[in-house]
């Protein structure tokens, strides 16, 4: 039996060699059309470099160089290599040939000196070079990976192997065989050179944007269905009620001013604008009462009020108030121009005509209000807030204080509309909220040593059960956060933080340019106030220990909060799907930390054998939340090691629990997607597939993250993902699933669209 194996392998080798040579010598006219279409747009006789071929094949120059050498596609020295598009066509044909040919191709790539053997050194050097091209594999892990690969190819016991041995190993190894099968389909992974986009001027880009926006609005209108309206009943009722109230006020003004006072048309329009301003200027206060919203979220009222849209509604009200102010001002200005008795400048800029309820101050206060409102609106634009000028936005937004003061002096009846909201706002500013925060809550942080008056919102990443401190993670992506990073990096490196500050860096080189690398700062802020509730007060200082050096380097950190978000609803649903993109995972860090603490508190350790057991009636039997799916989409895991540690701990605890309770199902499922590595059918993927899957098979963990859950590449297929959760084994009904998202708006819109199609409730984290 053993004597037939080499003979059979030799026959396979001979057949593969013949097929390979036929493909290499195949005339162009016999090349299949589905391969030609990927290369016909390129000049047939134009010389091409290895780098150009690598770009077309979507792989690395190192791989192309090995392929050309293995297939003897160039008979001259590498420095004088003359290649053309026919080389690409031949490589594509070989990639899509039989498994035997692909196995022979891999053998030839590993056989660097072409002596018909693959040695330990050849395999080690080849895969070491490959690992350098595979992103996010730690350099310190490379020797271990090579050792595992040598063992897989039986080169841990032998110095070298022939093709017959190599072929037998591959054919009997499921992972190696599966990696070679990746090229079964036609090469959709080949990069097609697209024509350069037509350059457009500012006006063309503007109108193109308008057309695209109109198209999106039309698409949205067509997608409004009964199910969508049914899932958004609180929003629909709130919008209808808001519209009806505005219409009612308009009708009241028209009837009163036309029928009773016989006013002219300009006065009527001015009074319509004034009445609607009374309402909307009061509402804009109400929608930003964060502590009131915080309390509402803790009650059943949140099911009937669309409080998660309060920030979007605040922005809408700001724009609507601006439009109403223009209507109100223009109508009064025209009316003053046609009114006899005083000149127009006297009406507008003096108190002599005695217009208004306090010393004729209405027109002049109106001018002041217009100036204040104009400054606030301009400085609230996205390009101001997100363009490195947050402090401008912050300071100008404080003009709401003189704005409402002048508005009370300006409008006779505005105080009646605003007394309730302003009273609540005043009480919120005075009230120090002394209670333990909830998972997913956020706080506003001010660090005077960085900027005296800038407050920025950050999600609390520690669990409420972790008493004595709160933890936040700050990503260095803006001017303020980069300054915070630079300051705390020095404190962390000097060792004077006492463990209160830790900096997670995107790379570990000594010199880090924070303008090029994304970094994350983990800050533990000890709570110094004597708080009976164990919570957070305003104006707290962060310090770590009584050590003299640490006391000298203590940082004053002023906190405002905590405030709640839609993450509060996670514990009210049966099945929570948590989706975070990049730093958007921070709201879920606190939630997962809290769940893990509760999980650990529920276990019992035997005093005799120290074995960990879990009672039959466990934690999940006592709460509504039964299942959590966590999806994290990120370019890479650098700067997020702290979060990976949390996931690893949760996986370990869950594995112990399932081992002790075989009748229980998994509570937390984790899916990671690295967008920095593209999912494509290229040579790189064959090698990456081998490395990642062999490592997982041997070590039982993912090579990139160390988790039991494998890492996916590219972006998730949201429709496929949601369908898998609503069908199949252990699936949930659409009504039981609640999706919680924190990340870019563009991604959120796509997810929301699919949630609407499946009838799944969708929540989005907004600041």
UniProtKB/TrEMBL annotation:
GO terms for biological process: defense response; superoxide anion generation. Keywords: Calcium, FAD, Flavoprotein, Membrane, NADP, Oxidoreductase, Transmembrane, Transmembrane helix. Residues 401-538 form the FAD-binding FR-type domain. Pfam families: FAD_binding_8, Ferric_reduct, NAD_binding_6. The keyword Transcription does not apply. The chain crosses the membrane at residues 236-259, 265-289, 316-338, 358-380, 392-411. Residues 98-133 form the EF-hand domain. SUPFAM superfamilies: EF-hand, Ferredoxin reductase-like, C-terminal NADP-linked domain, Riboflavin synthase domain-like. It is found in: Membrane. It comes from the Eukaryota. It is a multi-pass membrane protein. Signal peptide: none annotated. GO terms for molecular function: calcium ion binding; superoxide-generating NAD(P)H oxidase activity. GO terms for cellular component: NADPH oxidase complex. This is NADPH oxidase. It comes from Rotaria socialis.
């Amino acid at each position: 039996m053993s004597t037939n194996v080499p003979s059979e392998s030799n026959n396979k080798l001979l057949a593969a060699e013949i097929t390979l040579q036929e493909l290499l010598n195949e005339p162009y006219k016999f090349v299949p059309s589905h391969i030609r279409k990927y290369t016909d747009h390129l000049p047939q006789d134009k010389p091409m470099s290895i780098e150009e071929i690598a770009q077309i094949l979507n792989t690395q120059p190192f791989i192309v160089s090995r392929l050309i050498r293995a297939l003897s596609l160039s008979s001259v020295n590498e420095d004088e290599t003359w290649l053309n598009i026919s080389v690409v066509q031949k490589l594509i044909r070989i990639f899509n040939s039989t498994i035997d040919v692909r196995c022979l191709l891999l053998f030839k790539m590993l056989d660097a000196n072409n002596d018909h053997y693959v040695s330990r050194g050849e395999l080690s050097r080849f895969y070491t070079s490959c690992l350098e091209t595979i992103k996010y594999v730690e350099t310190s892990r490379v020797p271990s990976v090579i050792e595992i690969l040598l063992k897989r190819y039986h080169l841990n016991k032998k110095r070298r192997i022939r093709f017959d041995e190599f072929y037998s190993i591959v054919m009997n190894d499921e992972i190696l065989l599966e990696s070679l099968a990746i090229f079964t389909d036609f090469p959709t992974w080949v990069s097609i050179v697209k024509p350069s986009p037509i350059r457009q001027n500012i006006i063309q880009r503007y109108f193109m944007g308008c057309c695209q926006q109109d198209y999106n609005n039309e698409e949205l209108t067509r997608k409004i269905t009964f199910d969508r309206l049914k899932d958004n009943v609180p929003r629909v009722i709130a919008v209808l009620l808001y519209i009806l109230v505005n219409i009612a006020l308009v009708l009241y003004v028209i009837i009163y001013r036309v029928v009773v006072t016989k006013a002219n048309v300009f006065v009527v329009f001015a009074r319509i604008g004034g009445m609607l301003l009374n309402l909307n200027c009061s509402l804009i206060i109400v929608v930003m009462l964060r502590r009131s919203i915080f309390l509402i979220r803790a009650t059943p009222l949140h099911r009937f009020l669309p409080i998660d849209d309060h920030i979007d509604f605040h922005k809408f009200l700001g724009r609507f108030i601006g439009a109403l102010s223009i209507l109100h001002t223009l109508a009064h200005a025209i009316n003053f121009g046609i009114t006899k008795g005083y000149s127009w400048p006297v009406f507008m800029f003096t108190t002599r005509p005695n217009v208004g309820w306090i010393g004729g101050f209405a027109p002049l206060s109106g001018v002041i209000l217009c100036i204040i409102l104009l400054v606030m609106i301009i400085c609230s634009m996205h390009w101001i807030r997100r363009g490195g000028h947050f402090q401008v936005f912050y300071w100008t937004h404080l003009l709401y204080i003189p704005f409402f003061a002048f508005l009370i002096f300006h409008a006779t009846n505005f105080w009646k509309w605003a007394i309730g909201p302003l009273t609540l706002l005043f009480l919120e500013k005075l009230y120090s909220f002394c209670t333990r925060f909830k998972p997913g809550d956020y706080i506003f942080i001010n660090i005077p040593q960085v900027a005296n008056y800038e407050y920025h919102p950050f999600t609390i990443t520690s669990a409420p059960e972790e008493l004595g401190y709160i933890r936040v993670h700050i990503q260095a992506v803006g001017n303020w956060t980069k300054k915070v990073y630079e300051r705390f990096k020095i404190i962390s490196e000097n060792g004077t933080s006492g463990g209160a500050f830790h900096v997670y860096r995107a790379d570990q080189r000594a010199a880090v340019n924070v303008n090029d690398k994304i970094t994350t700062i983990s800050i533990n802020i000890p709570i110094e106030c004597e708080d009976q509730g164990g919570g957070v007060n305003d104006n707290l200082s962060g310090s770590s220990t009584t050590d003299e050096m640490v006391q000298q380097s203590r940082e004053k950190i002023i906190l405002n909060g905590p405030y709640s978000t839609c993450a509060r609803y996670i514990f009210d649903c049966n099945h929570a799907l948590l989706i975070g993109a990049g730093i958007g995972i921070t709201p879920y860090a606190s939630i997962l930390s809290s769940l893990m603490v509760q999980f650990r508190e529920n276990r019992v350790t035997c005093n005799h054998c120290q074995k960990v057991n879990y009672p039959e009636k466990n934690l999940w039997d006592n709460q509504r939340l039964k299942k959590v799916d966590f999806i994290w989409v990120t370019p890479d895991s650098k700067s997020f090691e702290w979060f990976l540690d949390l996931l690893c701990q949760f996986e370990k605890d869950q594995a112990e629990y399932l081992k002790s309770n075989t009748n229980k199902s998994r509570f937390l499922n984790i899916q990671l997607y690295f967008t920095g590595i593209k999912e494509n059918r290229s040579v790189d993927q064959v090698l990456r597939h081998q490395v990642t899957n062999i490592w997982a098979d041997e070590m039982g963990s993912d090579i990139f993250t160390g988790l039991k859950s494998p890492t996916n590449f590219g972006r998730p297929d949201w429709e496929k993902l949601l369908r898998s959760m609503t069908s199949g084994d252990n699936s949930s009904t659409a009504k039981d699933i609640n999706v919680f998202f924190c990340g870019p708006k563009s991604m959120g819109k796509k997810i929301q669209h699919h949630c609407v199609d499946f009838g799944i409730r969708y929540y989005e984290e907004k600041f």
